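Researcher: Going back to the complex we discussed earlier. I've cleaned up the inputs and rechecked each line, so this should be the final set. Can you rerun the prediction on the complete assembly and write out the structure?
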Amino acid sequence: ETGVTQTPRHLVMGMTNKKSLKCEQHLGHNAMYWYKQSAKKPLELMFVYSLEERVENNSVPSRFSPECPNSSHLFLHLHTLQPEDSALYLCASSDPAANEKLFFGSGTQLSVL
Amino acid sequence: GESVGLHLPTLSVQEGDNSIINCAYSNSASDYFIWYKQESGKGPQFIIDIRSNMDKRQGQRVTVLLNKTVKHLSLQIAATQPGDSAVYFCAEKLLGGGNKLTFGTGTQLKVEL
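Model: Rerun complete. Updated structure for the full complex:
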């Protein structure tokens, strides 16, 4: 295991639902990331938090709302999603001494009906 | 082989043979490269990385080669085992690009018994 834990592993939601994805790391890292992984496409960076401040927002629709309450936890709040948002959502963290090297969780497989 | 941002090729090898997975990158300003392995149902797992001031780096059963002249990166796996079956991603980081990685679409490695 990488030390990055994501819950839930699978999520099915309707377009009018509100749900949240959770990520937790106990590696002492100070940066956390959300990535979207769709079939046969490169990983897409969504958000980056460094020292609990959002440092990158890659033109992600407002129906995705991240939250980083402390350096160990990261959330992705979802509301009024579209079927094309169905994908694997991966959380990652990085060590301040080697911040290019990402440690990924196992992801949340999201299906929007 | 794989190019950052294009199709997902498949490489089939016999158990015990050596595997070579290729990656072409387009930005000569990239100064850091990394390989990840992703097994079904799991998040990407770090394999090996290399900085642009090096041509070769070796790990346990894996070697990464970097040819900056032709902007080519390869991952060599010695004595390929069934447990090596996975999708392999390369990623690059631009010099001065902070900690943002740009990922390729991946290569599916299948190990035949």
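Model: Worth noting: The CA atoms of residues 37 and 76 of chain A lie 15 Å apart.
Researcher: Good, that matches what I expected from the previous run.
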